[in-house]
Structures are given as C-alpha cells and as structure tokens.
Design a protein that fits this description.
The chain is of the alpha/beta class. The protein has 11 helices and 7 strands. A 7-stranded parallel beta sheet has the order 3-2-1-4-5-6-7, sandwiched between helices.
Length: 285
C-alpha cells in the first residue's frame, strides 16, 4: 500500500468532528473527500484548507446516496481511509418518536454507513490495506431514557463494526470504533431542532418523566467543561496514522464513567443504576 495515493473520505465533513477530522487529515497529506449536505460550508472549508475536495450528498436520500457510491467506486485511486462520521439524533420517549422519523435516522446513521463502506471495500481489498473508522457513540453501549431510537442506531453501528473488523482483517484492512461522550458541537442544537417541542405534543402522562430525567441529567453538567470536536478528530487522525491502531477508542465528557459502569454491571445492575441516575427509579405516576 506504500505506493498508493492516500485518499480519505470523511462523511459529515461540514461541521463538528467531521470538519476537524478533514482538516487534520489534509494537513497530514491526505487528499480528503469531504462529503456532506451543506455544500456552502464544504466549499468554504475547501477554500481555507488545501487538499479538501467537497462533494455534495444527502445521505437520507437513497438515490443521491447511490449516485455518491457510484462516484466513489469509480475513483481512479481507491479510498485508503474511510471515516464514517455522519449522523444525527432525535430525542423522545419511544411513544413520541414517529416510525418515519426513526426510519430516516436509521437511513443516515446506519444504512448510509453500510452502503458507503460497501463502495470503498473493493478498492481496499485490491490493495490489501486501508482503514475504516466508524463513529459510534457512548450511546452505542449506554442508552439514556429519551434516546432509545438514536441509541439503537449506534448499537447497530457497534454490531456492524465488530463483525466487519473480523471479516476484513485477512485483507489487511483495519476497522476502528470510536465512542465519543458528550462533545461541544452543533449536534445538540440539531437534535433539539429536529425533535421539536416534546412538551407540546406528548401525552401529559410523560411530562413528569421528561421533567424528572431532564433535571437529573441537566444537573450533571453543572460546573463542567464539555470538550470540543478537536478531541475526537485528533483520535480519528491518530487511528488512521497509526501502524497498529486500537480497535476501540473513547473520549469526551462522562465517557470513562458511563462506559465503565456499563461494562462492569450486569443487566439488572445497569437497569438500577440508570433508573437511579435519571431520577426515574422511584417515580410513580
């Protein structure tokens, strides 16, 4: 693979972790394909950082996704580093999340990741090398109440990544999972916008659930500093550039604490811990 031109594909490159990752890899000499829906931001980024090529794609649109994958498959040089970063969240108790909204989230967070990976794998197999980095989440192992459908997409990413890692290791392809904790990006604002006003549309029965868990979770952030996307982007770049990357990385606010709890507790213990920390253990309605 030493004679192969280094090409990185970063999805969700217009903001946050994806943007910072694209910048770092371009500075390391990669030709970076920055893919996202907001072309104005990508064009601005490409004008600021040499080596980034913007590509417009809406991962929620299956036809647009397929055209993008055909483009990737037809590149003169194969993608050597794939960063599956694109994703978003919706919030709400299961009863309050429409199936259509959940389906669209799965399309972006899971099915687009699968399809883009499929488009990149033949080139990686041919050169017997490459790196795939899948951005999971702390939620991929630790599902908060009100985030079940989003956590389900990240549980799916975890499973896909675990299986893929073993499938393609014989070809010299490395597969890495990264589980960010809370990171200061536009992610939270986008989630709030897409979720909308839950209190205006939920059944009154759920209002005490939202209020109680929201207050408990909100109190955890008092006096703490939430790291920016540069933290995770640095880890992505480290994994791509390493001769022997770890198979899993995690970083970000509460990632050590919560992932440690999930790994150390059995199912009953985790249920009790989660119920207690969110204030819902003793709530009776």
């Amino acid at each position: 693979m030493s004679d192969t031109k280094r090409v990185a594909l970063v999805t969700g490159a217009s903001s946050g972790i994806g943007r910072e990752t694209a910048i770092l890899l371009a500075k390391e000499g990669y030709e970076v394909i920055g893919a996202a829906r907001r072309m104005d931001r990508l064009t601005e980024l490409a004008g600021q950082v040499e080596g980034i090529r913007p590509v417009d794609v809406d991962l929620s649109d299956t036809d647009d996704l397929e055209k993008f994958c055909e483009h990737i498959s037809g590149l003169p040089e194969p993608v050597t580093a794939l960063i599956n970063n694109a994703g978003y969240s919706l919030r709400g108790a299961l009863e309050d999340v429409s199936i259509e909204a959940a389906r669209r989230m799965f399309q972006v967070n899971v099915f687009a990741l699968m399809r883009i990976t499929q488009a990149c794998l033949p080139g990686m197999r041919k050169m017997r090398g490459g790196t795939i980095v899948n951005l999971s989440s702390m939620a991929g192992k630790f599902a908060f109440p009100g985030s079940g459908p989003y956590a389900a997409t990240k549980h799916a990413v975890e499973a896909i990544t675990d299986a893929l890692r073993v499938e393609v290791r014989p070809f010299g392809i490395r597969v890495v999972t990264i589980r960010p904790g809370f990171i200061a990006t536009e992610f939270n604002d986008v989630a709030n916008t897409l979720t909308g006003d839950l209190f205006a549309r939920t059944d009154p029965d759920y209002k005490p659930v939202y209020e109680t868990s929201g207050k408990a979770i909100g109190s955890m952030f008092a006096g703490v500093t939430v790291p920016g996307p540069e933290l995770i982007a640095g880890i992505v770049a480290e994994a791509v550039l390493s001769d022997s990357p770890r198979i899993v990385y995690h970083a970000g606010l509460f990632s050590e604490e919560f992932l440690g709890k999930r790994a150390g507790l059995d199912d009953e213990g985790f249920d009790e811990y989660l119920s207690d920390m969110t204030g819902l253990k003793d709530l009776k309605l």
